[in-house]
Amino acid sequence: MLGALLIDAQCIPAVLQYLKPESFYRQQHRDIFSIIVRMFIASESIDFVTILEQVCREEIFPTDQDAKIYLTQLVQIVPTTGNVEAYARIVKEKYCLRSLISTFEEVIGASREGNTDPNLLMDLAEQGIYDIRQGRDSSGFVHIKDVIIGTYDRLQRLGGEDRADYIGISTGYPLLDNVITGLNKSDLLVLAARPGMGKTAFALNLALNVAKLDKKVAIFSLEMSKEQLVERLIASEGLIASDHLRRGTISTDDWEKIAVATQKLSPLPVYLDDTAGIHIGEMKGKLRRLRDVSLVVIDYLQLMTGGDGKKRSDNRVQEVSEMTRALKIMAKEFNVPVIVLSQLSRGPESRQDRRPMLSDLRESGSIEQDADIVLFLYRDAYYNKESDSPGSAECIVAKNRHGETGTVAFGWDGEHTKFTNPEFGRDD
Hints:
CATH class of the largest domain: Alpha Beta
Number of helices: 17
Largest sheet: 9 strands, mixed
CATH topology of the largest domain: Rossmann fold
Number of domains: 2
Helix content: 40-55%
Strand order of the largest sheet: 3-2-4-5-1-6-7-8-9
CATH superfamily of the largest domain: P-loop containing nucleotide triphosphate hydrolases
């Protein structure tokens, strides 16, 4: 494969989608491939002579003559450059096999110690396999030049036809997108509000908007059953009074709306899990099996348990802090945005201005520090029954690691538990 690249530099783009320097077994092969990629990124002339010069300069071989002989041998064993992608796939397969062997040796070694929780061992095995499947390297530090390869490729794609796959996923609310630049991969978003403000409704609205873009959404509901969630989704999508569904007072017109709503919802890639007291390790295992998830929603933080389901501390603040750190790691690991709902303390109730602040986060610990984005929901009509704007709501962007903070206006349809774009009075 390296010989093909020495013969024809036009093969390099096809190879980059399969391989990285650590994919090669021999260190010399890793170094040669790194040189080729580095020269490609710098738009330098790439041929046998220029690569040989750089290999000699970096003293990859004991002598310049050894380098010349070895590179010549690489070129001579190549039957044709037309099969370079097949060669690259073979190298990748061998790398995966070596990685699997290393992962299972680690699990076997930990198993023989006899004092490790079997659940943790299974999670270790699943994690290792998942990393291999995703083409990730967990061996340690990575040199900046190797990161540049991936960044170069991403920037090229960002300006291409598939740009939508490399920017934040739209929330379905343009005003909110303008502030937070959409739902960005590996971000942890905390959505907090006092009870009754509609945080579950808002999270479901976001999830539904993302699913309508043909993006797979996973929802972990620790408070409500999956049947209750579906009822809410039907009410929101079909514009059916939610209390009609709760009480069973469903009219003929409602049944027609339900039929239309279910037809729209059924094909959407939305997956629900209502396991009570689920821990983060279990979440990760389920997400790995689900595969290709674009958004994770968790309702809500305070009902979760620690990594392996065991209580680690009598200090609840510390326990919640550990969970937020684990959720941020999970978002980064799966490279997806994770929205976690959270309760607020009673702080807003004691102030004249009842709009939430970061200090109101209940059992805050490191919630503020770990979150990339913190969103608060506020409806004046909730506190003031004589409010001039009963159909309005605010989404307060209290923290935004990617840019500005501020307040985004929404419309609120309480009858159908739905947040809308105020300029249109609807969510499209």
